[in-house]
Amino acid sequence: MGNVMIEAGGAYLALETGMGRQRFHAVWLRDNAWDAETRAPGNGQRLIALRDISPDIRIEAAEIAGTDLNVTFAPECKTISYDLNWLEVHAYDRPTLTETGWTAPGIEVWDGRLMANVPVANFGAVSGNVEAKRDWLAKVARYGFGKLTGGPVTPGALFKVVELFGYVRETNYGRHFEVRTEVNPTNLAYTGLGLQAHTDNPYRDPVPTVQVLYCLESSAAGGENMVVDGFAAALRLREENPDWFDVLTKYCARFEYAGEKGVRLRSRRPMIELSPDGELIAVRFNNRSAAAITDVPFDDMATYYAAYRRLGEIIDDPAMEVTFRLNPGECFIVDNTRVLHARKGYSGSGTRWLQGCYADKDGLLSTLAALEHRMPEAAE
Known about the structure:
alpha+beta, NE0471 N-terminal domain-like, 2 domains, seven-stranded mixed beta sheet, 21 strands
């Protein structure tokens, strides 16, 4: 059942249940009411603004009734019911996290040992079965990447992959780009050279948050794809040397691209990005697109470069990588704010043709959340 107590003259209440003691401010409760006058019944959007809530709001009465908490507010003289389970899920009276670099629930960092359990699904299955799509998208959200097999071997098939969860993000490269050897290429991705693990387009702000690479031809020797968990690399750096981790989160790097006429892209962001409360939210790492670093004070520059070098060494460590070969009709998708991807060098004999495009993670996470809401028994 539980108990509820009004405290501080009604400024907040304390709710005691089997899950412990939680406090909720009057203004927070009123702002998060779900009655029909506060929220639109169809979409749940607020019908009032904060200015419509009295700055003198207080809790006049509160009681538990079954699975609900009924709260009466003054000076409105309005009583609103709150679901106790909803309050438990959204409770904010908890210890503050003090360690920087924590990751959100549902994120699982990994290294090369994930090779035995690469998140993979069949294109036909995820296209025709909502449970299969939900399970695959859940793995992509957890690990930051996923592979699809059994897709059509036709140009533009990558768009069907994006349609599973969202929309193509068009850039100066177009709706998609070709990855195969070219003469006088505008980008090193179009050569047979091996590429260091990197995140794409760090010179954009915001970066494309999802990338899809789809294989159409693959008879050249080599060219295997690799992925590295940038979050795992950043956390390994933090374990080895907290000061080096801190310097890469404290100062901005600069990135730029000017390989085409009329295009000059620039960004200024940390290589390891944290939210204000210390959550690890993004990694940007791409030495090919790195500009001169000018935002680090002289006294910290040597430390910054030592940290930058070590992060690169960790990323290059074979123990961190998952490697796989893409055959025609196969593709992989990466969270471009977290997972770095790379390619081993390939020979000039035979052919290697991939098509790539960008999309955005909000669409993927929205699709996943809608599927999980529809089927709450979603697989872990």
